[in-house]
Design brief:
Shape of chain B: globular
Strand order of the largest sheet of chain A: 10-9-8-7-11-12-15
CATH class of the largest domain in chain A: Alpha Beta
Helix content of chain A: 10-25%
Number of strands of chain A: 15
Number of helices of chain A: 8
Chains: A alpha/beta, B alpha+beta, C alpha/beta
Strand order of the largest sheet of chain B: 3-2-6-7-8-9-1-10
Structural class of chain B: alpha+beta
Distance between the termini of chain B: 57 Å
Order of helices and strands of chain A: EEHEEEHEHEHEHEEEHEEEHEH
CATH topology of the largest domain in chain A: Rossmann fold
Number of domains of chain B: 2
Largest sheet of chain B: 8 strands, mixed
Oligomer: heterotrimer
Radius of gyration of chain A: 18 Å
Largest sheet of chain A: 7 strands, mixed
Chain lengths: ~270, ~350, ~625
């Protein structure tokens, strides 16, 4: 028995991109080519990333699995480990375990209208799914992306937002809570965007990711507009250590966010009891 | 495989322990420097205790140490290597009580769940468990309520029963037979009367559990269906001083965190015991804490220990009835006290 | 796995446990059922005590600062350098001083004090935590006239009444809280006095909610009711000032609630009085301690078996540090420096004439000395001066740090001497019950570190105050002679088991009773009371900050609130229209500050509590006194 669940694989940082003053996107590639080839994941899954000497923490995969060879993760600086990670440069090594978690149900989404609602740093898990969907565009019906951030400076993937705005076959709107010089777009919380798009509650799966307070308001709004709990989907965040359902940090009742989630629909979320 | 049922004279027992010492590291309860019994690696056959109150610290620490190195990390010239750390030393756990054998079985089942935990399982695979049945229940134990004692019906490699002049030895595995095989000349097959005596001792022991009981069934019903008032959890939470002792001495608790230790390109990734009763156990980087209140954390602990949901998953309650939490709990929110409070829907009278 | 019976290094409850070591490193903790204090129970800190020694940044080599950098040097060179520089300063007429520590052993602290007085010829000797615990001890002495035996933690369990003046006992002293809970389950009445509905207040029979600094008023009321209760005259003969006390309290009225609580205390066969550093520092807690001691005295619960007072000390060896004479005006035995008999005794043990006149305390020392030896402490983390203390330390001409861990004071030092942590040293500590207990090494010394007593002995020898100690036990035997209350304890300390002995302390027989002077702090203009939370800030202590498990809460708080915060009751927050995390502007007679708030359920309205860790953020409105009236508005 050697295949140790706690043994990380080594990946190198290929590229680092500044998203906001405290958020960076890291492109990573496994050092060993056969490990790179064997690494398969679903949008919505996450990895345990080690910064050696500081430990490891879970981060969602932010790139599409359809783009192979490398993967990306977008990380905000919030503590010792992420501080250390932000100091790393291209070519430096980190540890990766995973992918973990259930991921989004791609098959269940085929043939449906898709509505993505993201707030601030909640976009990365949806970005993986969005690019996966766009790379297989024919399999889905209307695709609508609504994105909000506190200020224009807090928007992540700025180049890609422009690209989505230009892409035909994607309806894209964004807004900021507070405007800034040079910002000519929408101002207001994300529900203001609901009035700009035709919602089709019967045929749509809505994916909602962002700060807890934003999720709360968006989801209430969606339910009021006729969405069913089963077709509103989010990812949960919890303190995690192992990623494999053993350490118990992320347990809610007898469910484990790391294994049974992190992707849940709101019917499942309602049934999760502490 | 037909289990062997043998006996060994008490005067020969040290000789057998001597033979065990030659086959691996032997861990047994010994009398410590401050007078209490503690599990400890022994060096000589005379050290193990044969009559003792079960040590306060369970033998868990030898299978799942409080600080458990799991990955060695080296960085040299920018290139990192990682290697799992395994401990494959053969060990014999002698005079382990039935509750602790059941605790180890619980931990093993948990670590076997996919993805399996090689670090624990390899260590476990090299352990031989020689249990000593409790023909006299201990003062605070209630193993009879969770089917974990006072005698075992399985899960041991060898189970010893004190028959007075001799010990009865039942084997439960090939490892057990091997443990006896190190000094097979000292053992002889048990007589029918000796086997009958063991049965009588077990029956008598089962009848000797007095007031110290723990009625899990109704508590499990209420916990599983969330019918314990939050107000009761909150009230009991006021008596919890958040020490984590209940977790650390519990034979079935295994929650952990993972941290790196070291520096200058040489680190050891360690698994460390953690406690679900600590506020920081669920504290997120944002400062949000889904279980910020003591009562919520206590509810979590007892859900994990005695809910039907976990019973179904684990095949057992997360309590082996050893009674250790009664001794370590600073505020008296131990398993029997909380189970009783849930049954009568009230905490202390005052 | 090696198992070593030792004493917990955190608070002054003095629990015992087995420290487990693997490959020479502390790796775990096992509880000890037979321990006289803890009896198999430990708090979170105790359970994680192995972490800091093995996970912390440890000092491994002696170092001297050269060209602004600390460079490793051999021990002899470091010691010669330290002794030489201190001698130079003394020769130049510059003041030098020594700070021991409530985290160090009795042997280390004793030698630190001896080094100062016999070697450096100065009474500039103290320990930083003294500034927090001294008022409590002094308040009790005001009533008892000298040291008096505290009630033992396990005796609290059989009391019928417990009076608790607390900050948050469940957090600061879980072992003591456990004793109170145990008494409660046995039916004891618990009277909790404080500004916040804490865990203990929630389980109390009666909770008297008062503003910080106004504890004395509630206790006055209890006193007045107790004096009026039947049979109170029994204690009059033992209490000097009894009539004056009656007179002072004539006008104090008591509600039914207070009267009933006073009756519980008066009727109790045994009663315990626990005093924490609940409000600010200095005079306020001294007065609170004095009046609670008075309450204990007039109700007949002082000086008898199974009853008594317990000052709740924050750090493990605060009492021991006092006992071995780490005070600018006290000698070993905690006796006044002017006491002729005590002077002669210490002089004969040391073979040296003692310097006369009280020295500087820790606060003044860091501001005024040119040379300072700091043992196992970071003054800026402990003293109320906070960052001002940091700045003062950095101005010191020659700073010597002896520590096991890399702390901020080490980073500022000119010479660093690496010593053992509690996990590698032999010695004793004295808990708040005045029980001397063993600290034993669980593993080898890391790097070139030596035991603290040895480093101090070497330094003493170089400064003309050497001794003939070959072990920590030798030092202890000398303490027995220098501090009489430690005399005769060695046989029990070194018996091979836990090694625990209560010190010989006199039972007080006569008391100087006194009511608390009360004064209204708030005004119409400044209607809020702002006070420091009196709890010791463990987040600033290496035993916690280097522990991965224990540091999580305090690190999270420090990260989320880089500019500090004050706690406010939900009702006050709602009235002001501020939510959690929003800023308020505080204005006191001293000045203004803007800080975010956190809501705290059960905090008394009109009270703002600031964690001691964030005192620097409030230095503009509130400084060393730790309590002030403020006006509050939304910022």
């Amino acid at each position: 028995m050697n295949n140790d669940a706690f043994l990380p694989q080594i990946a190198r940082i290929d590229a680092v991109r500044d998203e906001t003053p405290d958020t960076k996107t890291f492109s990573l590639r496994f050092r060993e080519p056969d490990e790179a080839r064997a690494f398969r994941f679903l949008p919505g899954q996450f990895i345990e990333l080690s910064v050696f000497g500081y430990g490891e923490a879970p981060f969602c995969l932010a790139s599409s699995p359809t783009r192979s060879g490398m993967f990306e993760t977008t990380i905000r600086r919030t503590g010792k480990l992420t501080d250390a990670l932000h100091r790393l440069e291209c070519g430096e090594e980190v540890g990766i375990r995973g992918p973990f978690g259930n991921g989004f149900d791609m098959e269940g989404a085929r043939g449906k209208d898709l509505l993505f609602v993201a707030g601030g740093i909640g976009l990365p898990p949806l970005r993986s799914l969005i690019w996966n969907v766009l790379d297989e565009r024919a399999g889905f019906r209307n695709v609508t992306i609504l994105y909000s951030a506190r200020t224009p400076a807090d928007l992540v993937y700025k180049d890609e937002l422009d690209e989505w705005a230009r892409t035909s076959g994607v309806e894209f709107h964004m807004t900021v809570d507070r405007g800034a010089p040079g910002w000519s777009g929408n101002v207001g919380m994300v529900p203001v965007l609901f009035t700009k798009t035709a919602l089709r509650p019967e045929s749509t799966i809505a994916y909602v990711c962002g700060p807890p307070i934003m999720i709360k308001f968006v989801v209430q709004d969606l339910f009021m507009r006729g969405f069913r709990e089963e077709s509103v989907i989010s990812t949960l965040e919890r303190m995690m250590q192992c990623g494999i359902g053993k350490c118990n940090h992320c347990a809610i009742g007898h469910r484990y966010v790391c294994r049974d989630g992190p992707v849940f629909n709101f019917r499942q979320i309602r049934e999760l009891v502490e | 495989m037909q289990p062997l049922v043998l006996t060994i004279a008490k005067r020969d027992i040290a000789q057998w322990v001597g033979a065990l010492l030659e086959s691996g590291k032997v861990i047994a309860p010994v009398r410590g420097p401050c007078g209490e019994a503690a599990f400890c690696r022994i060096e000589s056959p005379e050290e193990p205790l044969w009559e003792f109150e079960n040590p306060l610290a369970p033998p868990k620490q030898f299978l799942l140490p409080q600080t458990d190195p799991i990955v060695a990390i080296r960085r040299n010239g920018g290139v990192t290597t990682v290697a799992p750390i395994y401990d494959d030393a053969p060990r014999i756990l002698l005079n382990v009580r039935p509750c602790d054998v059941r605790g180890i079985a619980f931990l093993t089942r948990m670590h076997e769940m996919e993805p399996a935990d090689a670090s624990y399982l390899r260590r476990r695979a090299n352990f031989t468990l020689i249990a000593l049945a409790c023909h006299v229940p201990c003062r605070l134990g209630f193993c009879v309520c969770s089917d974990s004692g006072p005698f075992l019906s399985g899960g041991y490699d060898v189970q010893l029963t004190d028959l007075g002049e001799r010990y009865l030895a039942e084997t439960g595995s090939e490892k057990g037979e091997a443990a006896i095989g190190h000094a097979s000349g000292l053992f002889r097959p048990a007589s029918e009367e000796e086997v009958a005596q063991r049965q009588r001792l077990e029956t008598v022991a089962r009848g000797r559990f007095g007031d110290q009981t723990c009625h899990f069934a109704s508590a499990m019903r209420r916990i599983s269906t969330r019918r314990v008032d939050d107000a009761l959890w909150e009230q009991m939470g006021d008596w919890c001083l958040e020490c984590g002792g209940c977790n650390f001495i519990c034979p079935t608790c295994y929650c952990f965190s993972v941290k790196d230790r070291g520096g200058d390109g040489r680190w050891t990734r360690c698994r460390m015991w953690d406690s679900c009763q600590y506020g920081a156990f669920t504290l997120e980087a944002s400062g949000h804490n889904p279980r910020a209140q003591r009562g919520e954390r206590m509810k979590r602990r007892f859900f994990h220990k005695v809910s039907a949901q976990y019973y179904v998953r684990d095949g057992a309650t997360g309590c082996v009835g050893c009674g250790r939490c009664i001794k370590v709990c600073l505020g008296g929110t131990d398993m029997p006290a909380v189970v009783a409070a849930i049954r009568r829907r009230a905490w202390h009278e005052q | 796995m090696v198992s070593t019976a030792t004493t917990c290094p955190f608070c002054a409850c003095g629990c015992g446990f087995f420290l487990l070591a693997k490959n020479g490193e502390a790796a775990g903790v096992a509880p000890g059922e037979s321990h006289p204090v803890s009896a198999g129970k430990l708090c979170a800190r105790g359970w994680c005590a192995h972490e800091a020694p093995s996970w912390g940044s440890r000092l491994l080599r002696p170092m001297i600062r050269r060209n602004r950098r600390l460079e490793p040097v051999p021990w002899n060179e470091a010691l010669d350098h330290v002794a030489g520089r201190l001698r130079e300063l003394i020769a130049a007429g510059k003041p030098v001083g020594v700070l021991g520590s409530a985290r160090a052993t009795n042997e280390e602290n004793y030698l630190a004090g001896r080094l100062a007085r016999a070697g450096l010829r100065t009474n500039h000797v103290d320990f930083c935590y003294h500034s927090q615990c001294r008022p409590l001890l002094a308040g009790i002495e005001d009533v008892t006239g000298g040291s008096t035996r505290p009630i033992a933690l396990r005796d609290i369990e059989s009391c019928d009444a417990v009076v608790l003046v607390e900050g948050d006992l469940a957090k600061t002293h879980p072992r003591a809280a456990a004793s109170v809970l145990k008494a409660r389950t046995r039916g004891a009445r618990l009277i909790a006095i404080g500004c916040a509905r804490t865990q203990m207040a929630r389980v109390a029979s009666r909770f008297l909610q008062v503003a910080p600094g106004s504890e004395g008023e509630a206790i006055n009321a209890l006193l007045a009711a107790a004096l009026r209760a039947a049979g109170e005259e029994k204690q009059a003969a033992r209490c000097a000032g009894y009539d004056a006390l009656r007179g002072d309290l004539q006008a104090v009225s008591a509600t039914d609630e207070i009267r009933e609580a006073a009756e519980w205390i008066a009727a109790a066969e045994r009663a315990a009085f626990l005093i924490g550093p609940s409000a600010g520092c200095g005079d306020a807690s001294r007065k609170t301690a004095a009046v609670i001691a008075t309450l204990a005295a007039v109700t007949g619960h002082l000086g008898g078996p199974g009853s008594g007072l317990l000052p709740l000390l924050g750090r493990s060896n605060a009492r021991g540090a006092c006992d071995v004479g780490l005070a600018p005006d006290r000698l070993p035995g905690y006796e006044p420096i002017e006491d002729g008999e005590a002077r002669r005794r210490v002089e004969s043990v040391w073979g040296k004439a003692l310097p006369s006149g009280a020295g500087l305390d820790a606060d003044r020392m860091i501001e005024n000395v040119s040379g300072l030896v700091v043992l196992a402490d970071d003054p800026a983390a402990v003293l109320s001066a906070g960052q001002r203390a940091r700045a003062a330390i950095e101005r010191i001409e020659f700073l010597v740090a002896l520590d096991a861990f890399v702390t901020p004071v080490v980073e500022a030092a000119h010479a660093v001497l690496p010593v053992a942590s509690f996990a590698e040293t032999e010695g004793t500590v004295t808990n708040m019950e005045a029980r001397i207990q063993r600290v034993r090494p669980a593993g080898p010394l890391p790097g070139d570190a030596v035991e603290g007593w040895r480093a101090l002995a070497e330094l003493s020898a170089r400064l003309g105050a050497g001794g003939t100690w070959n072990s920590a036990a030798d030092v202890f035997h000398e303490i027995e002679r220098a501090a009489p209350r430690y005399g005769g304890t060695a046989a029990r300390i070194f018996d091979g088991g836990w090694g625990s002995a209560l010190t010989e302390m006199p039972e007080a027989v006569r008391f100087n009773v006194q009511a608390a002077a009360t004064q209204e702090l708030t005004t119409a203009e400044r209607p809020f009371v702002l006070a420091w939370d009196g709890a010791f800030d463990w987040g600033g202590d290496p035993l916690v900050s280097f522990s991965p498990t224990l540091s999580r809460d305090s690190q999270s708080e420090r990260k989320l609130f880089p500019n500090g915060f004050v706690e406010m009751s939900g009702d006050d927050a709602d009235a002001l229209g501020v939510r959690a995390g929003w800023q308020v502007k505080l204005g006191s007679a001293r000045g203004e500050a803007i800080v975010p708030i956190r809501r705290r359920d059960g905090l008394r309205r009109g009270t703002l509590l600031a964690p001691y860790a964030f005192r620097d953020c409030l230095a503009g409105v509130l400084a060393d006194e730790g309590i002030t009236a403020v006006q509050v508005e939304r910022a």
